[in-house]
Amino acid sequence: MSILKKQDEIRERFKQVVRENNLDGILLADTEGLPLVSYLDEDVDEETIAASSAAILSAGLITAGDAKKRGLNEIIIDTEDGYLVFVPIKGEFVLGIITPKETKLGILRLIAKEVEDFLEKV
């Protein structure tokens, strides 16, 4: 995947998805926690979210393995103010989507799948 060569294109797509779906932000990080591309609110710390995303994904993979469950499709964190969804992308990256509480989980899953499909074509 040529993520580094396509950062501007990806950022524009993230911006479009955030605006069309009233999201709080989207971030793509590598599995080491390095932020690669994001479109986030100014008050959100990109580096902290990227590092946390990688740690959450790693913990989820370990926990799923310990529970004898194969494959990890997504991790959803439900807070009082909204949702955070983390999706592994090709075993190399983690996609983080931050949403307000009124976002429906079914719609959120569709958005995540749409962005995942876009990233796999880049």
What does this structure look like?
The protein is an alpha+beta fold and 122 residues long. It has one domain (4-121): 2-Layer Sandwich (Beta-Lactamase). The chain has helices spanning 7-21, 46-66, 105-121; strands spanning 25-30, 35-40, 75-78, 82-89, 93-100. It starts with 6 loop residues before the first helix and ends with a helix. The relative contact order is 0.20. The model has no long low-confidence stretch (mean pLDDT 94).
Kindly list the characteristics that best describe this protein:
122 residues; alpha+beta; Beta-Lactamase; 3 helices; 5 strands; 26% strand
Number of helices: 3
* Portion in strands: 25-35%
Helix content: 40-55%
CATH homologous superfamily grouping: Dynein light chain 2a, cytoplasmic
Order of helices and strands: HEEHEEEH
What are the low-pLDDT stretches, counting only 5+ consecutive residues below 50?
Answer: none
Task: Please report the total strand number as a whole number.
Answer: 5
> What name does CATH use for the topology?
Beta-Lactamase
Tell me, briefly, the overall form.
Answer: globular
Q: Measure the end-to-end span.
A: 6 Å
